[in-house]
Structure formats: C-alpha cells, structure tokens
Amino acid sequence: MSGDLESLNGVGSTTASKLRASGYTTIEAIAVTPPRELMEKTNIGFNTILKIQEAARQMIATDFKTAQEFYEKRQTMKKCTTGSKKLDEILGGGIETQALTEFIGEYGSGKTQICLMLSVTAQLPYEKGGLEGNVAFIDTEGTFMPERVYQIAQANGLDPQTVANNIFVARAYNSSHQCLLIDRLFTMVPENNIKLIIVDSMISHFRGEYVGRENLSERQQKLNQYLHKLVRLSEAYNVAVVVTNQVQANPTAFFGDPNRPAGGNIMAHACTHRVFLRKGSKGTRIARVIDSPCLPEVPARFLISEKGVEDIDQDDDE
Ligand SMILES: Nc1ncnc2c1ncn2[C@@H]1O[C@H](COP(=O)(O)OP(=O)(O)OP(=O)(O)O)[C@@H](O)[C@H]1O
Ligand SMILES: [Mg+2]
Q: What's this model's pTM, rounded to 2 decimal places?
C-alpha cells in the first residue's frame, strides 16, 4: 500500500510514532478514521489531526472520484467461494471483498459452520475461488473449533497445520473487548495479509449487555460505530467481512416469518448483503438473500458435511 507515515506532510518522527503506537500504522487507516477518535487515541491536537488527515486523503485520493476510477476500484474486488456453487450463485459469485456479508439464522442453522468453511477457502488461490490471504476470526460465543478447521482442511486436500496457522482467532469476552479487537485489526490486517474478517456473532454481547428499552439507543450507537469500522476496514484494505446475526421474535408479524434479524435498522443498513439461513429436510440448509439491491431472492440449498459446506449431490429440488 502507500508509503511511510513520515511521507505525509506535517508528520515528523514523533507524530508518526504516536500514530503507530495507537495502532494507526498505515496512511489508509489514518485517512478513514474519524478525527475525534484519532485525537483521543493518539493525544495529538485536533487541528494537527485534521491537517494530517487532509494529507493522507490527498495521498490516497479519497475525495471525489470519477465513475471510471470507482469502476476500477470495484474491479479489484474479489469473491471467495463458500464451497457450494449454489450458495455462491445467489451471492453473485461468492463472498465479496469491500463489503459486509451477514448470515442470519436461528440456533444450528449453520452460521458458524459457514464461517469455519470460509476461514479455509479464503486461503485458496484466486483460480480456486479463494482470496489468497489469511483470516481474522473474532469469536464471541466460544464456538470456534480448531478441530473442525482441521477436518475441513483435510477433507479438501489441504495441509491442516498450514491452514490453521493462517487463521488468527480472538475470543471476545464482552462488547467492549469486541470493539478493542476491531481496533487492533487496523494494524493486523495489513501486517498479516488478512483478506477475510469474521465476527461470529456480531450482536450477542450487545444484546446481552444492553437490556431494556432505556439502553437501546446506546446499544445501537455502539453497534453502529463498530459496524462502520468494519466497513472502513473492508474498503481500505480490500478485505471481505462476514458477520453472523441471530433472529428475534417479531411480535407484530401476523403473516410470514415470525422471526426477524436482530440489531434493527443499524444492522440492515451497514450490511451490504444479508443472507437468511434455515434448516431444510435431511440435514440440508436453505439460504436466501434478503433486502438486496442487486441479488435475486431465490433460495439455494446446500449441505453441511465433513467437508464443510458443499452442494447437495443430486439436487432433487423438492
Ligand atoms: N462435522 C460435521 N459434519 C456434518 N455436520 C456438521 C458437522 N459439524 C457441525 N455440523 C452441523 O452444523 C450444525 C451446527 O451449526 P452451527 O454451529 O453453524 O450453527 P449456528 O447457526 O452457528 O448456531 P448458533 O446460533 O447456536 O451459533 C450441527 O447441528 C450439525 O448439523
Ligand atoms: Mg454459531
């Protein structure tokens, strides 16, 4: 990516080391972080921060872009296979970089299994549907199973130890710890060639900690900040971000599905693609893209197996 922090106008070695010590090691990270946050983390004065950010934005040109430049950036977008062609198809070819993809579903619907599978497939070369990169996995529920990663890697003909060595896992114990881990990613992602970030689950700590109507707005504000950091990471470093979400009962639904995704509008707006999962017959799973401006809402059926995620052998489309 772009050059040293010292190459920015107005940044000497002292300022550069303050920025680095606070986790802002790249020009991209400086350009996309809100100025107030930079000021609080680094103890650099607000006006200096504004000047540094101006220089950073000039260097990576985050101002107006032509549609052509925008188009070229979109061309650098990569797609990661889920292991199932059917599921990839309804996602428009796989999990996209420069975007947030959300898997929503009830207990046992396969959210964690998909995350584990993606942790393996993201490491594959481009021609095999991978992102040629490593993975950061934030586990909020203690359900990350290294044995399952081994099993999936082996069943797909990969060396499990190599695969496991490329997945950086952190267990988040509460919502503020979860936020701290996200901040760490601004340093970790470029330093470790991370191309996929997973947060499984995005919302369980927030739901558990901010209970009751009186805490709802604070919860949503925190969640919003945190989701926007993920969006910035995905855009600044061309990485794919996958989050999982639970369903909650919707007491006002008279018709249709009585369950809806948790997290309200904040989750809905931040996530580029939302995928609803449910269990089908004979151990199959059914995925459906919801609220998408560009993807069709047709369901895809797939299987969770020893191999991870795969297509159903003979799709008897019942
Ligand atoms: N090795 C395996 N082979 C086949 N199926 C498996 C294997 N491991 C897990 N599964 C299936 O995946 C299911 C668990 O799915 P998963 O843990 O992804 O659910 P989840 O959506 O993350 O649920 P939660 O909301 O509880 O986190 C199991 O019930 C089982 O059907
Ligand atoms: Mg899970």
A: 0.85
